Amino acid sequence: MTFEILSGLYLADRGQDQKASTLKETKICHGTISAALGGLDMRTHSRADLVALRDRFSDGRIPSTVNKLIVKLSAVLAWSVENGHIPKSFDKKLKLTKGLESTRKAFTQDQVVKLVSYCNTLPETSWKRWLLSLGAITGGRLNEISQLTTSDVLTLEAGIVAIHINEAGEGKSIKNKRSERLVPLTDCAYGFDLAAFLRYVEACKLSKSEALAQIGYKTAGDWANRQAIPAALGDSYGPGLVFHSLRHSLASLMQIKGIPTVHAQAVMGHASGTVTYDTYGSGVPAEVIAEMLSGLFSNQTASRPPNAEVLLLNNV
């Protein structure tokens, strides 16, 4: 019972549950694992076999890639044990723990203020202004923000304005089912102008444009990472500071402020890996998250700059 055979059985049972892009990646990873394990009978495999496999994977690959392969391996082995194909798996605590530091850094709060201040110098009719601003106050991933439509901007019963991150619609995609969420927009956070953003949304509707973005996902990322962020930060810019750093910054701020994990997950679209917290979205009202974010940004709020002048805050 080789891994290749187990992979075929696993995909026949679980493959339909995966998105096409995820399934393609899974098959590639399974091919790599199968080639490395060869004819090893997984019914009699040992811990030493899997440690040796991990060591082979580590040759020429970065730790995060090695761990991705191990995650795919573990999924097949766990399924195989559950379905009686192998008696036991020895993959526990197999993933690497060293060398996993992300090359992406978090912005300081001063730097986030500079970024939103830079955005406020752009016309409110420009999507580029809202791309970075929304990233700063929601922690949304680049693709999540880039694929927003006019119908994804909601005004809830309590008067709260939120963005609905989802994959309903042609070409839209989210990382996993836990990524779908409502994230309230906090007016004045870092100088964010909610009224101006809503005017932009209405302008898109009037122009019969369902998409909020005026440029593609990759073009948006290139502009943000290569032009806007370096220009906004000036001398404080450094390697590893990219659009995704806004996500790290918000997560770090929530951690520092002691925000309950379940609330942080509702904003970020994360899961804790525990049964209780993996159902975070169903029990956290948008009003609670809106109030939490308002308090979180209380020291980072400011009046919007008149005539789109640059917002300067000395105490963040």
Automatic annotation (TrEMBL):
It holds the Pfam family Phage_integrase. GO terms for biological process: DNA integration; DNA recombination. Signal peptide: none annotated. Residues 102-294 form the Tyr recombinase domain. InterPro entries: DNA_brk_join_enz, Integrase-like_cat_sf, Integrase_catalytic, Integrase_recombinase_N, Tyrosine_recombinase_XerCD. Keywords: DNA integration, DNA recombination, DNA-binding. Transmembrane segments: none annotated. The keyword Metal-binding does not apply. Gene3D superfamilies: 1.10.150.130, Intergrase catalytic core. GO terms for molecular function: DNA binding. The keyword Cytoplasm does not apply. It comes from the Bacteria. SUPFAM superfamilies: DNA breaking-rejoining enzymes. Belongs to the 'phage' integrase family. This is Tyr recombinase domain-containing protein.
